[in-house]
Amino acid sequence: MRSFQQRLADFNTRAIRVVAISVDAPEVTRQHCQKLGFTYTFLSDPNAEVIRRYDLLHQGGGPKGADIARPAEFLIDSTGTIRWINLTDSVTVRARPEQVLKAYDDLKPAAPTGA
Amino acid sequence: MKRRWNFSVWAGFLLVVLGLVSYVTFFVRFPITRDFPWANLLLFFAGAVLLGKGLIRSFRQPELYRGKILGSILAAVSLAGIGFFAYGLFYLVRQLPSSAAAPRLGQKAPDFTLPDQNGKPVTLAELLASPSAGTAGARANGVLLIFYRGYW
C-alpha cells in the first residue's frame, strides 16, 4: 500500500484511479490513512459482499477466524473492462506499482480510444 | 582453571533471534526483502554457523569453553524458531483460496457501491468517471482495484 502511495504521481499522470478494498470499517481506514499519509481511495466492504462477488473471499483468513479478502489486483480500463489481473499465491508477494504501470503502458496501444 | 565464556554460542543465538523478529518489524516493508526472506535466511545461516562453532568447541574442549548444556538448549530453541519461521513464510502464507471464479481478463468488472474512508458511498462507475481522488471532470483512463487483507 505504501509503495502505491509513493508512485501515486505516476498513476495520476496516466489518469489511473488507485482504489484499495478490504473488510475494514471506514473509520479504521480513515485513521490509518491519516497516520500513514495515504491519499488514494480506500473502500470498505465489512460484509465482504463485493469481495465474494469477485471470488476473493479468504474464509477464516483473518485474526480469530474472520473472513477477509485475499490479496488481488485488477486493472480496469475506461470502459469497465478488466485488462490486467494479479492473483498472487503468497500473502507476502503483492503486485508492485512498477508492474501495474508497465502492464498499463504495454496495453495502452490496444485499448479502445473511444473514437 | 576458569573456563572461558563461549561468545560464539550467544552471538549465534542473537543472530537467529534477530532473523526471527526482523522480518515482521523491518524487512516486510521492502518488496525486495518481503517477497523472498533472503535477508532473514542470511541471518539464520550466520547464526547457525556461529552456534555450531561454539557448540563444537564446547564439546571438543570442555576444559576450555563453557556452553555444553546452555549451547545445546540455545541451538534447539534456534532450530525450533527457524522451523516456525519457515512454516509461516513458506507454507502458511501460501494457503490462499484459488479464486477460480474471479472475474477474468476481457470481462466487465462487476459494479459495486461501497463506502470510502470518509463514509461516502462510491460506485465503480463513479471511480471510472474521475481520474483521481477529489478530481472531477475528465474521465479516468482506468481504475486499479487493490484488494487487501485489512485488519489494520
Textual characterization of the structure:
- Chain A has 115 residues and is an alpha+beta fold.
- Chain A has helices spanning 2-6, 8-13, 26-36, 49-53, 97-107, and strands at 16-22, 41-44, 57-58, 68-69, 72-77, 82-86.
- Chain A has one domain (2-107): 3-Layer(aba) Sandwich (Glutaredoxin).
- Chain A is 33% helix and 23% strand.
- In chain A, 37% of the residues are buried.
- The mean pLDDT of chain A is 93.
- Chain B has five helices and three strands, in the order ααααββαβ.
- Chains A and B meet through α1, β1, α3, β2 and α4 of A and α5 and β3 of B.
How many strand units of chain A? 6
Q: How many DSSP helices of chain B?
A: 5
Strand order of the largest sheet of chain B: 1-2
**SSE string of chain B, helix = H, strand = E?**
HHHHEEHE
Radius of gyration of chain B: 26 Å
Architecture blueprint of SSEs:
The complex is a heterodimer of chains A (115) and B (152).
Chain A: H1 2-6, H2 8-13, E1 16-22, H3 26-36, E2 41-44, H4 49-53, E3 57-58, E4 68-69, E5 72-77, E6 82-86, H5 97-107
Parallel strand pairs in A: 1-2
Antiparallel strand pairs in A: 3-4, 5-6
Chain B: H1 7-25, H2 31-34, H3 38-60, H4 68-90, E1 113-115, E2 121-123, H5 124-128, E3 142-147
Antiparallel strand pairs in B: 1-2
Task: Provide a short characterization of the protein structure.
Chain A is an alpha+beta fold.
